[in-house]
Specification:
Elements: E1 8-14, H1 19-31, E2 37-42, E3 58-62, H2 75-81, E4 95-102, H3 111-122, E5 126-127, E6 132-135, H4 141-166, H5 172-178, H6 182-187, E7 253-258, E8 277-286, E9 296-302, E10 315-319, H7 324-333, E11 343-348, E12 366-368, H8 369-376, H9 385-392, H10 398-407, H11 413-421, H12 427-433, H13 441-447, E13 454-457, E14 468-474, E15 477-478, E16 488-489, H14 491-500, E17 522-528, E18 543-546, H15 553-568, E19 577-583, H16 586-589, H17 601-610, E20 616-621, H18 636-642, H19 644-653, E21 657-663, H20 664-683, H21 687-699, E22 703-708
Parallel strand pairs: 1-2, 1-3, 3-4, 4-5, 4-6, 18-19, 18-21, 19-20, 21-22
Antiparallel strand pairs: 7-11, 8-9, 8-17, 9-14, 10-13, 10-17, 11-12, 15-16
Helix pairs in contact: 9-10, 18-20, 19-20, 20-21
GO biological process, one term: folic acid metabolic process
Keywords: Amino-acid biosynthesis, Cytoplasm, FAD, Flavoprotein, FMN, Methionine biosynthesis, NADP, Oxidoreductase, Phosphoprotein, S-adenosyl-L-methionine
Subcellular location: Cytoplasm
Length: 709
Amino acid sequence: MCCESKRRFLLLYATQKGQAKAIAEEIWQQAGAHGLEADMHCISEMDKYNLETEKDPVVIVISTTGTGEPPDSARKFVKKIQDKTLPPDHFAHLQYGLLGLGDSEYMFFCNGGRTVDRRLQELGAQHFYDTGLADDCVGLELVVDPWIDGLWLALKEALQLQKEKEGMNNAVNAVSNSLSTAPHAVHELKLNSEVQNLKLEDEGARSSHILSQKLYDINLVAPARDTEPSLVHSVPPVSQSALNIPALPPEYIEVEFQDTQGENPHVSSLTSEGRTFEVPVTKAVQLTREDAVKTALLLELDIADTAFEYQPGDAFCVICPNNVSEVEKLLHILGLSEKGDDFVCVKVKQGTKKKGAVRPQHVPERSTLKFILTWCLEIRAIPKKAFLRALVECTSDAGEKRRLQELCSRQGASDYTHFIRDSNVCLLDLLHAFPSCKPSLSLLIEHLPKLQARSYSVSSSNLHQPGRLCFVFNVVEFPAGPSRPVSRKGVCTGWLAELVAPLLHPSKNSQGTKGESSSTEKISIFPRPNNAFHLPADPSVPFIMVGPGTGIAPFIGFLQHRQKLREQHTDWEFGETWLFFGCRHQDRDYLFKQVHHLTSLLDELQCFLKNGTLTHLKVCFSRDSSTAEVAPPKYVQDVLRLCAKEVARVLLKDGGYFYICGDKKHMADDVSDAVVDILSMEMEADKLEAMKILAMLREAKRYLQDVWS
């Protein structure tokens, strides 16, 4: 614990992929410049803090994961405060400010932070500062930066109130009564309060200053005649501005090369998700023609000899490596091409100024250099501003150094968003654009986040195919562009496609699709159960499924499962089922054409229709031309509108469920709008009332989404 004389506050973070931790570390670093000391802990370290007895202000930074859940590191904390036996004044003594991180592309925006915030309020805790909700869809920094700027004034106010309260020991009751409304007054402080513009400088300096460089002091990478900014080139006013740049993050990792040999850890040891399973790929099928816009693959895994369990609608994660050629390029830039197979020891740097410095859990203490870059670090991650700030110190060219400073500065926030964040620029792109930048391996370990396992929806039924698990995916393509010199495939989808490529032998059918193959390749997976996206518990309840493209995958599992249930329980009553499916072209993209030998998806769905498993099937093709007088609907939301009365009946009268799977931005939102229009029309109510009904359906877990952006 920090000394109270240093004006302490408690700083807690709950992170899934490292964003919340990085922001908490930024707050911790800035605190000293304001005469404060942050006692920082991960929210899961409940043995190191105690909110029940906490007297000082508490700052919480928390992200959101999955379909609106708090991050894994906050699970125990949330479970503890959700205890219904806690009295409403349990945290009446607590003053806190909360910063939630989320992505408005997803349904439950910042729900992790909102959940904690709401529960703390219910237990009597008081805000000393407005809650901030940062949106990764438009850029976290748009809220994070001003929220941190305003935090210091609010903290000092709260600490002053606390000091006055503690100094009046002879009149505790009177003081507590007189201050009962004070936290509310502080809560009313707005983020646009007049606070001194924060000016940070390099580690070790005591006074604030602004980093100033005149245009004529530097050599810009692009010719002066260029009037448009780019990743490597800026224009006024940024190019002529004095810059507010972040503090230089302290170094805390050192890497030692060793002469000894040994074995690398197993990849399963890199995850904290519990048990992992190494399973063989027993089938690989290309579902789309060669001339389709996207390449869709289906893989079948053999889980018969494992304890892996799932339900239709569940997801699971694949542990994947970085691209081999990208790792080789990175080793070359680092000047370590000849040392990729050498063992290194990673440990905390002695005498580091980083508080609570520990070796990242996702990096083994001892392994080969190539293992770290292949399996441990997300080398495709979009560099955070703190990383850019550290890269400045590794850059020798003055023009490149200035541009990196601009990109991590307040003045260059728009350029950062446009040329790095929105362009999905990664470390390799930066090192290509700024060739004089030569970072160390230790810097990469300090700043690159953990290589995350990738999540996929199950597209099979354990009743229909015991011991088998199927999943479908599009091979993601990132085309070359101004900030990306080469095209790339998705980290996991590209790896999986390459893994099974030798097994996809051309078939002899006229469509030119690829056939099935057996495989001995193995991949490591672990379960990621979905608590809501399952078939209704009551089989008599009707449901609607909307799944264009590969979004149909979990619904194939739904229907296979339902068919088996119908065969096993002939005396049960089963509700009606609707499926709305769409793709670009009927002849190129109609998925599952080779899943069951020569059976197309249409044939399989027609089979479900024939035996009564599927009651209604609606299909559309968005890119096919039509000669009909009345053009057919192009998108699933258009088909839904044509079935408005039936959709409204299922949802409003029959108590049915509505499932959506697929692209969030370009489909799920449009489907949601269509449902609102349908409810409004059929209820003869305004849109606001229809939106309330939809919100109630979501709350009741009857309107469910499994979407991605």
